[in-house]
Design brief:
Blueprint lengths: L1 H16 L6 H15 L13 H11 L6 H15 L2 H4 L4
Pfam family, one: ACBP
GO molecular function: fatty-acyl-CoA binding
Family: Belongs to the ACBP family.
Length: about 90
Amino acid sequence: MESQFEAAVKIVNEFGASGQQLTNDQALALYGLFKQATVGDVNTSRPGMFDPKGKAKWDAWNAKKNVSQADARAQYIQTARSVLPPAWASRIA
């Protein structure tokens, strides 16, 4: 599972680097799952009103509170497969 998660993260990053984009909601969903999978429950205070991007990212991460890191990795893989175009999603082993 860990190697599959790492492969999914790599493919999502390559997809972004290729100039293609996910929707904001898709990117935030993946971000929240990534942070939960790698760090665990949110461990910082929520950014202030002058940082709307930071608040959105914090909220996406906080929405995954109490999800185990193993479950977050599995959800990340599934979400990546569902939001990436088929040619990219098929690269996730």
